[in-house]
Amino acid sequence: MKAMALGSPAGLDTITLADHADPGQPKAGEIRVALHGASLNFHDLGVATGRMPSETGRILLADGAGVVESVGAGVTEFKAGDSVVSCFFPDWQDGTPTIGNFARTPGDGIDGFAQEFVVLPATAFTHAPKGYDAVEAATITTAGLTAWRALVTDGQLKAGDTVLLLGTGGVSIWALQIAKAFGARVAITSSSDEKLERAKALGADFTLNYRSQPAWGKAIWDWTGGRGVDHVVEVGGPGTLPQSIEAVRVGGHISLIGVLTGGAGEVPTAALMGKQARLQGLIVGSRREQQDFVRALEVTGIRPVIDRRFGLEELAEAFRYEEGASHFGKIGIAW
Fold first, then answer.
1. Element at 84 (helix H, strand E)
2. What's the per-residue H, E or C state across 12-80?
3. Which of 64, 226, 236, 238 is deepest in the core (most CB within 10 A)?
4. Are strands 248-256 and 229-234 parallel, antiparallel or unpaired?
5. DSSP of 258-299
6. Which CA distances in Å does 217 have to 3, 74, 169, 253, 280?
7. HEC assignment per residue over 296-315
8. With left for phi above 0 and alpha for psi between -120 and 50, is residue 304 left, alpha or beta?
9. What are phi and psi of 43, to 5 degrees?
């Protein structure tokens, strides 16, 4: 069985095509899945480059989707032939967050989905959205569910709300599609005018190039007529947070989900206090939230934006493409 694994030392040049033993048949409570698709995330790139240390030989990728081949005793939720997609936190089934690290996240603390077959507990998967292929389904595990939780579960998004999104990566484009499906108005930033035009085509109401308008927090504030946005999906971290605080309304909600500009920095606490805004960190979501998200996708008909697809053995090339940051939406891996 083919698998793409972390080499030693960790790095894109040492990602290894390994031959692993077939996982066999499922035991009680387990399912056997033939995997056919995955997608790349910033987290996966961190593991692949060694920035987020993992074990040599670790099979990469947190997102995986495919088809159930067989089920173990006691499994009633799935049957052979069902399309399924993985969970980022396979042990967080429902309720408030209980996990604050990646010790049991596939592709980091445990083996991931850059392989042909897995046998895992049935609770490590949900049904895939009907009509999605494996790559499309895999985009919901990390990026899609993060956007859903930020806006819907935590943010309580409603029609007429205003949303600010930073950049045009996987989470932000998912958030754009979710927000528009809920009837929200959306502002989005990028350093690329071409990407901003693509965002407009997906329904963005206001676009802003942060290179030509570095004081974009004030520009967003002005766009709302001096009220501020209801929600910010903050993927940048300390380098962008001050502008996000300027853009948010009094009593608004900032979802802190990214550290693209670094892991530490100065937070303008007085400005945050003055806005009386809720700054909430989050990491993806629970299995129950993923099931809710899947139902919403089937009702709304939203389809993920896939920038480009690579083969399984092209994983290192796909990561290099991700490093280049020219993509819009998600990067897929198909096999």
1. strand 83-86
2. HHHCEEEECCCCCCCCCCEEEEEEEEEECCHHHHHHHHCCCCCCCCCECCCCCEEEEEEECCCCCCCCC
3. 64
4. parallel
5. --TT-S-----HHHHHHHT-EEEE--S--HHHHHHHHHHHHH
6. 44, 53, 20, 15, 19
7. HHHHHCCCCCEEEEEEHHHH
8. beta
9. -65, -45
**Which is nearest to 294 in space by CA: 151, 125, 172, 164?**
125
Torsion of CA 152, 155, 160, 162, to 10 degrees: -120
On whether the pTM is more than 0.90, the answer is yes
Name residue 163's beta-bridge partners: 186, 231
User: Which two tokens mark 82?
Assistant: 């069902």
Residue 184 and residue 160 in contact, taking contact as beta carbons nearer than 8 Å: yes
> What single-letter DSSP state applies at residue 110?
B
Cα-based distances in Å from 232 to 188, 280, 285, 319: 10, 10, 18, 27
Q: Looking up tokens 């569910």, which residue turns up? A: 145
Rounded Cα distance between 29 and 300, Å, is 32
How is residue 271 written in tokens?
């400005």
| Under 8 Å between Cβ of 174 and 303 | no
121, 30 contact by CB (below 8 A): yes
Name the 3-class secondary structure at 212.
coil
- Looking up tokens 């974009």 gives 216
